Please model this.
Amino acid sequence: MKKPLIAAGTLLLALSFAATAEDMPGMKMDGMDMDGMNAESSKITPSASAEGTIKAIDTERHTVTLAHGPVAALQWPPMTMAFKTEPGQLENLQVGDKVAFEFLYEGGASKIVNIRKQ
Model:
């Protein structure tokens, strides 16, 4: 008779804990306040920096093609690729120059933020 009573009491206790744990406003997980999270804060544009050599400059399309080393921030291997630029960013730069640069990567496109000759 005591075993079914103990089992029923244990079940009742477990259910009461489950009921109170359902919704806990302001609950923090791993040190993060989940109330402060929203879709906008998770849409951060990845930025990175690298070093490379200018292979081509297209002033009409506002692009520069760079053979760059690995980009650890984006887990990219060394490669040669085109980057979008703003007018005037490539003044005083020419094919063959070694450069250090920072860029934003968004929607499959890379855009130079800063580029300077080394």
In short: Residues 2-20 form the longest helix (19 residues). The longest strand covers residues 47-58. The CA atoms of residues 15 and 109 lie 52 Å apart.
